[in-house]
Amino acid sequence: MEIEIGAKLIKETTVTERNTACAVGSGEIDVFATPMMVALIEEASATCCQQFLEDGMSSVGTLVNVTHLAATPVGMKVRAEAEIAEVDGREITFIVKAYDEAGLIGEGTHKRFIVKKEKFRQKAYAKLG
Prior knowledge:
Layout: E1 8-14, H1 21-24, H2 34-50, E2 57-68, E3 77-88, E4 91-100, E5 103-116, H3 117-125
Antiparallel strand pairs: 1-3, 2-5, 3-4, 4-5
């Protein structure tokens, strides 16, 4: 498993009533919600990482450090870009940016950790007793 520094991936969505701050409970204005921007950033990062992983492996988010710089109205397209900046063993650091059709709306870093899917799932569900 060789993870390529500089690998990039883009994910896109359109702002709808379902992904606004009002809809997800993160505010009272009908604009693209910060948690939805973070979710799009994580999706881009996870997908970027997954292309390098063997069967049975996945990655989990461990840190999100982003600034939401500008509001995006319903109807506008949003894209999240994730670029692998650093690999330290099983930890991958991404430089992430989000844009709407008018420009940059968010930026920061995101970290993911490579795990064995089944082992990770079993450990999580062991909490149920």
